[in-house]
Amino acid sequence: MKDSPTTGHAAVHSHGGGTDLAAPEGTDLENRFANPGLPAHRFRVTDTDPKAARSAERQVSTIFLLSAVGTVVFLVGYFALPIEEDKSFERLLLSTLVLGLGLGFAIFCIGIGLVHWAKTLMPDHEQIELRHDIAGTEDDRRDAANIILDGVEESGVMRRTVIRNSLIGALGILPIPAVVLFRDLGPLPGEVLRHSLWENGVRLTRDPDGTPIRAADVTYGSVFHVIPDGMEDSAHPIEEKAKAAVLLIRIQPEKVQAAPERDGWDYDGIYAYSKICTHVGCPVALYEQQTHHLLCPCHQSTFDLTQHCKVIFGPAKRPLPQLPITVDNEGYLVAQRDFPYPPGPSYWERGESE
Q1: Residue 70 near residue 28 (C-beta atoms within 8 A)
Q2: Is 73 helix (H, G, I), strand (E, B) or coil?
Q3: 98-145 tens-digit pLDDT
Q4: Where residue 32 falls among pLDDT bands split at 50, 70, 90?
Q5: Which region ranges are annotated with the description Disordered (predicted)?
Q6: Which residues are CB-neighbours of 266 under 8 A, at least 6 positions away?
Q7: Residue 204 burial (10 A CB sphere; 0-12, 13-18, 19+)
């Protein structure tokens, strides 16, 4: 490797047969190239032709109004095609198709309208914002507020009343489908959640076939997923199952900590507990035989069967409600009464003792 004897010129370095050009010391490379700057701004047709701008404004408003049509289609489909009256697959398919297309078209049109508004009517001048310290002075904050106000002014939302009003109208009715859909989430908290189908004498049956369960068939360590007898004949079987689903487990009675207030709630070591996690309502369906722990797979809340399903890990705050059980004169397991307090997640109408 040799350095060039001529000072002020770049030195040529050899690296295994190749060469590279090194900048001389003291040379500012940034000053060797002229800043090309920003290219000349290209005005859109709507920037120079008021007629084209008005046409674009009408187009945006029309798109927003089409969004409102999609919302109306959703509402009409929801009320005109109720699946409660006709539970056939064809009705379910048609209802889902109309609801999905209506709501999807409404949201799509609002998005397209906003994009078209921005690309044709909002200012598109190129700007450069120099970096500065994160902390700002009072003047900086005042300037930032002015920038927001300038953005509102440049967007034309205050001047273009047709666009503004059509957008407000489309956004105003868009949440209505969500409000309507909330009706299908189930009953509001209150008395309807405090009681399930369990009552004195109702047999415990296997989920999902509804076969009654004999106490003699429940061996130590076995787990049964249980529903109340006759649940399928109720008016709302899915809603009832969400309140009444139970896990049936047999454990040696001496391993369970005695609780005088629960005396007689089990039958010869056979315990029945709500399957609905007290965190957010996921199904507690995992049982570990060695530790006698029940695990919720959603958020890993863990309940100790030997402590009457007390929470020992995870976000749940309350133990699983126990269903008092006994046997009838035929040897089948039956409920003594309903859960002592509502199963599932907490809500604002629970009592202090719950």
Answers
A1: no
A2: helix
A3: 999 999 999 999 999 999 999 999 988 877 777 766 667 788 888 888
A4: confident
A5: 1-28
A6: 253, 256, 272, 325
A7: buried
In b/e form, how buried is each residue of 256-282, taking b as 16+ CB within 10 angstroms? beeeeeeeebbbebbbbbbbbbbbeeb
Write the pLDDT tens digit of every residue in 141-194. 888 888 888 888 888 878 888 888 898 888 888 888 888 777 776 666 666 778
Distance in angstroms (rounded) separating the CA atoms of residues 205 and 332 = 9
Q: Identify residue 279 by its one-letter amino acid code.
A: H
The label of the residue with tokens 């009681």 reads: 195
Strand pairing of 223-228 and 246-250?
A: antiparallel
User: Between these two residues, 3 and 196, which has the higher pLDDT value?
Assistant: 196
Q: Is the pTM of this model over 0.85?
A: no
Query: Mean per-residue pLDDT for 271-298?
Result: 93
User: Which residues are registered as beta bridge partners of 310?
Assistant: 304
Sequence-separated (6 or more) residues with CB below 8 Å from residue 11? 3, 4, 22, 24
Please say if the pLDDT value at position 274 is more than 90.
yes
Tokens of 210: 């509804």
Q: Are 339 and 322 in contact (CB under 8 A)?
A: yes
Please state, in angstroms and rounded to a whole number, the distance separating the CA atoms of residues 262 and 308: 9
Average pLDDT over residues 339-352: 75
Residue 206 is predicted with a pLDDT of 95
Q: Smallest Cα–Cα separation from 147: which of 121, 161, 129? A: 129
Q: Are 280 and 290 in contact (CB under 8 A)?
A: no
Nearest to 122 by CA among 150, 156, 89: 156
Distance between CA atoms of residues 124 and 155, nearest Å:
10
